TrEMBL record:
<keyword id="KW-0547">Nucleotide-binding</keyword>
<dbReference type="InterPro" id="IPR017945">
    <property type="entry name" value="DHBP_synth_RibB-like_a/b_dom"/>
</dbReference>
<dbReference type="Pfam" id="PF03481">
    <property type="entry name" value="Sua5_C"/>
</dbReference>
<comment type="similarity">
    <text>Belongs to the SUA5 family.</text>
</comment>
<dbReference type="InterPro" id="IPR050156">
    <property type="entry name" value="TC-AMP_synthase_SUA5"/>
</dbReference>
<dbReference type="InterPro" id="IPR005145">
    <property type="entry name" value="Sua5_C"/>
</dbReference>
<keyword id="KW-0819">tRNA processing</keyword>
<keyword id="KW-0548">Nucleotidyltransferase</keyword>
<dbReference type="InterPro" id="IPR038385">
    <property type="entry name" value="Sua5/YwlC_C"/>
</dbReference>
<dbReference type="Pfam" id="PF01300">
    <property type="entry name" value="Sua5_yciO_yrdC"/>
</dbReference>
<keyword id="KW-0963">Cytoplasm</keyword>
<feature type="domain" description="YrdC-like">
    <location>
        <begin position="6"/>
        <end position="192"/>
    </location>
</feature>
<keyword id="KW-0067">ATP-binding</keyword>
<dbReference type="GO" id="GO:0061710">
    <property type="term" value="F:L-threonylcarbamoyladenylate synthase"/>
</dbReference>
<keyword id="KW-0808">Transferase</keyword>
<dbReference type="InterPro" id="IPR006070">
    <property type="entry name" value="Sua5-like_dom"/>
</dbReference>
<comment type="function">
    <text>Required for the formation of a threonylcarbamoyl group on adenosine at position 37 (t(6)A37) in tRNAs that read codons beginning with adenine.</text>
</comment>
Length: 326
């Protein structure tokens, strides 16, 4: 059985009502959606993604009021961020109510909530009388999908339906903010810049760093987004003394491209996240480029990191995780 790829929102809703999994577009990445209040349907998400252990899921709804109904004791900072940035690429981790099934939160007392900013996702969610749990629609450890075809390529044999909402505008997963002991803390850098969150709250926020052995939050393992080859990361591509033996290079802006054009470089294949140096464009292209690298079967790829500001911080985070070895 191969998944139907379609723009039919009613059909997607019918599948979700029947307890099926559906590939759902959002502005960040495509999600693997199921009825969040149906423990069997949500358990199926873990089976299809082949997650080795249960990792908590994000609950999606069409409005802040509807999604915040699954949380209690909401800190005022969270209310503020919800009002300012939803719908948008932001996930809030809050104390959960008893309505949320344990399988969704992997037994935690907190739940991750989000209102996605995508017209098809919002239209779909509005039709349903239940919330939707959706992790990124990729097998565990792989790059997140940013088109319906990416979902079909990896999960098309395992799910009946993919709602096609076009390529994802943001292209990076949502930024996750939690409030341990009431302190706003970034659990995952993503499609909303940390600077914008700090500006909104009027104070700096804590950053949770990744760890390869002891993740401080679930799903924070450093090795992730595996591109199937060795990635070498540099602040400046000129630092790579072995550039001649690489199969490909990933660049941002025109500096590296100019440098490489001035040296002999055999068959080096060049992928530029944004020749104009635009961080938003780079974010939207990142996963497609990592996917392309995987598909072409390169062995060694040299990557120039982006400036550590705005979305550049989240993109560098994904690149570092993609480069991490166990
Ligand atoms: O942009 C996104 O967030 C996409 C789209 C589909 O909405 N979803 C997504 O889901 O990236 P997923 O499952 O791939 O990543 C969710 C992350 C995981 O790392 C998980 O550990 C974390 O959110 N998470 C979920 N609930 C949590 C909780 N209660 N406390 C801490 N982290 C949590
Ligand atoms: Mg994911």
């Amino acid at each position: 059985m191969a998944a139907i790829i379609s723009t039919d929102i009613d059909a997607a809703a019918a599948h979700l009502r029947a307890g099926d999994l559906v590939g759902m577009p959002t502005e960040t990445v495509y999600g693997l959606a199921a009825n969040a209040l149906d423990p069997t349907a949500t358990a199926n998400i873990f089976a299809v993604k082949e997650r080795p252990a249960f990792d908590p899921l994000i609950i999606h709804q069409a409005s802040a009021a509807r999604v915040l109904a699954f949380a209690k004791n909401i800190p005022s900072a969270a209310t503020k961020l919800a009002a300012l940035f939803w719908p948008g690429p932001l996930t809030l981790v809050l104390e959960k109510t008893s309505v949320v099934p344990d399988i969704v939160t992997a037994g935690l007392t907190t739940v991750a909530l989000r209102v996605p900013q995508h017209p098809s996702a919002l239209a779909l969610l509005k039709q349903l009388d239940f919330p939707v749990a959706a992790p990124s629609a990729n097998p565990f450890g792989f790059v997140s999908p940013t088109t319906a075809q990416h979902v079909a390529d990896q999960l098309g044999e395992k799910i009946p339906f993919i709602l096609d909402g076009g390529p994802c505008r943001v292209g990076l997963e949502s930024t996750i903010v939690g409030f341990p002991s009431g302190t706003p803390t970034i659990y995952r850098k993503g499609g909303m810049a940390v600077e914008d969150i700090e500006l909104a709250l009027g104070c700096p926020v804590n950053l949770l760093e990744h760890s390869s052995s002891r993740p401080q939050a679930p799903g924070m393992l450093s090795q992730h987004y595996s591109p199937g080859c060795e990635l070498f990361l540099w602040d400046n591509i000129e630092q790579d003394a072995a550039i001649g033996q690489r199969d490909a290079v990933v660049l941002f802006g025109d500096r590296g491209a100019k440098y490489l054009s001035e040296r002999p470089r055999n068959s080096l294949s060049i992928h530029n996240l944004s020749p104009e140096g635009n961080l938003v464009e780079a974010a939207s292209r990142l996963f497609a480029v990592l996917r392309e690298i995987n598909k072409r079967g390169y062995r060694e790829v040299s990557v120039e990191l982006l400036p550590e500001r705005g979305l550049g911080r989240a993109i560098n985070d994904r690149l570092r995780r993609a480069a991490a070895r166990e």
